[in-house]
Amino acid sequence: MDRALVWDRGTLKLLDQSVLPHQTRVVACATADEVADAIRTMKVRGAPAIGAAAAYGLVLAAQTAATADPPMLRAHLDTAAQMLLGTRPTAVNLRWAVERMLAVAGRVAWRSGGDLVEALLAEAQRICEQDVRTNRAIGANGAALIRPGERILTYCNTGSLATVDYGTALGIIRAAHEQGKRIQVFVSETRPLLQGARLTAWEVLRYGIPATLIADNAAAWLMRQGLIDRVVVGADRVAANGDTANKIGTYGLAVLARAHEIPFLVAAPLSTVDFRAPDGSAIPIEERPPEEVTHVAGVPVAPEGIAAANPAFDITPHHLITAIVTEAGVATPPYTRSLLDLSATRAGR
């Protein structure tokens, strides 16, 4: 599989990201429950990819209950939607995709379960096609900000594995590389699940982008040595004022970038902007199992019995962000105005 997720004759196939890069395993989901489990266990991850997977999860929910009468089918769909929404509370693309699918179920005149499945499948496919176009646009808009020869630090994984295809923050890096800008990338490992070391490192090697893997705690020293020209990260949710939720550790990188006067870019589709959240305090932060901290790849690295905290995300305040790159353009402070303007521009297209 070249993509994180593929719909194949009534089944959602996922590239299992929990075992990359050492194994290539495809997980086939035939029910919404299986999709929810794959999202929860991070076999599929990244805000856009989670949203797309959830959309197909609702197709599967309708498919498994297609012979039920319309009220029961709709109730089954609503139950599946709530289950999917409960898997990863921080990534707003999940809610965005689920609400979009439910809107189709409420809007389309369907006489049978088969009609509903067909309508939902068409919408899920539109969500995927839109994601690819969106990522390409983010890449182009962000690459325009990159100077030739820049050394860019990125965090977590924001490439084709985290999206339907191409990527957001890594999409900017890919576009700059494809334009021949001779960039170099520093890939931060991203504890505790090592998405940078396992996934981003795997992707940049495939794309032929010159890259160096670093421990998370090496970033400050590299900045102090003048080896980082720009930081580019993704986002799981952006509040209306520009406060941004991203993988835990992003906030610290933003503080370091500000201290060293290094531009800090966030790459995110407008579907990731939550205008219902006025600021970062309204964004829920997922707490994941402590075993992800006390173990690495299932191997214990801490003494048995030690307590561990494992927030999956943190909030980067908007004043630390140089710009937010979207498919409709680049938002700059004040974000309360520029994000709304870009959203209006996109809606008017």
From TrEMBL:
EC category name: isomerase
Question: Which positions does UniProt annotate for substrate binding?
Answer: R45, G46, A47, R88, Q195, N246, K247
* Name of the protein: Methylthioribose-1-phosphate isomerase
The keyword Amino-acid biosynthesis appears for this protein: yes
The Gene Ontology biological process terms listed for this entry are: L-methionine salvage from methylthioadenosine
Q: Which domain of life is it from?
A: Bacteria
Q: Which organism is it from?
A: Candidatus Segetimicrobium genomatis
According to UniProt, residues marked as the site described as Transition state stabilizer are C156
Q: Which residues form the active site?
A: D236 (proton donor)
Q: Does the keyword 4Fe-4S apply?
A: no
